[in-house]
Design brief:
- There is one protein chain.
- It is globular and about 35 Å long.
- The chain has 5 helices and 7 strands; from the N terminus they run βαααβββαβαββ.
- The two termini are 17 Å apart.
- The protein has one domain: Aminopeptidase (3-Layer(aba) Sandwich), CATH 3.40.630.
- It is α+β, with helices and mostly antiparallel strands.
- Helix 1 crosses helix 3.
- It is an enzyme of class 2 (transferase).
- It comes from Rhodanobacter soli.
C-alpha cells in the first residue's frame, strides 16, 4: 500500500503530471478539449503546484509507492460558502487517485488522513465540491458521512459547471472511517 506524506517542493513536477493525468482520465471524455486544456494549464501547472505546496494556508498530501505518486489531496482553510455551517471550516479542494490505483483502498486511506489533518487543525466541519455528474465520487464521500448542503459554480475553462457542496462534522466519524 502506498505511504502518505506531506508534499515537498521537489514533488511539484510529478504532482502536476499526476493532477493533470487523473483529471483528464476522469473528465476528459465528457468535456470540451479546449476547456480541459485551459483548466489543466491554469490549475495543474508545475508552478501552480509549487505555489500550492508552499502555501501556509494549504496542505498537500501525496501517496507514494516505489518512488511513484499514486494519489494526492489538497486541503485549505479559507472562507466557506454560506451553505456550510461552521466556526472553523476546512476544505478538501482535491482528492485524486491514479486510475491504476482505483479500488485498492488508497482513496479510503487518503480521506482518513485528510480528516485527521482537519482534526489537527481544529476544523469543526470539512467540506468539498464535487461535480454533479460524478456519482462515483459522491457515493464515496457519502461513505465518509458527507451530505449535500448546497451547490456552487465550478468554472471548467469557459464552461460554468454545477458542483454539489458536501460537508460533514470533523469529529463525528462514521463507522469504518
Amino acid at each position: 500500500m502506498p505511504s502518505i506524506r506531506y508534499a515537498k517542493p521537489s514533488d511539484a513536477k510529478r504532482l502536476a503530471a499526476l493532477a493533470e493525468e487523473t483529471f483528464r482520465d476522469t473528465f476528459g471524455s465528457v468535456n470540451a478539449a479546449e476547456d480541459m486544456d485551459l483548466h489543466c494549464r491554469t490549475s495543474y501547472a508545475e508552478a501552480v503546484q509549487l505555489a500550492e505546496i508552499s502555501n501556509a494556508g494549504m496542505v498537500t498530501l501525496v501517496c507514494e509507492e516505489g518512488g511513484n505518486l499514486t494519489a494526492f489531496a489538497q486541503l485549505r482553510w479559507s472562507e466557506a460558502p454560506g451553505c456550510v455551517s461552521a466556526k472553523s471550516p476546512g476544505e478538501i479542494l482535491r482528492l485524486y487517485v491514479a486510475k491504476s490505483w482505483h479500488g485498492r483502498g488508497v482513496a479510503h486511506d487518503l480521506m482518513a488522513t485528510c480528516i485527521k489533518e482537519m482534526e489537527n487543525r481544529e476544523s469543526d466541519v470539512v467540506w468539498l465540491g464535487v461535480w454533479e455528474r460524478n456519482p462515483r465520487a459522491m457515493a464515496f464521500y457519502r461513505k465518509f458521512g458527507f451530505g449535500e448542503v448546497g451547490e456552487h459554480v465550478f468554472p471548467l475553462g469557459t464552461d460554468p459547471q454545477r458542483d454539489v457542496i458536501m460537508a460533514r462534522p470533523v469529529f463525528n466519524r462514521p463507522p469504518g472511517a
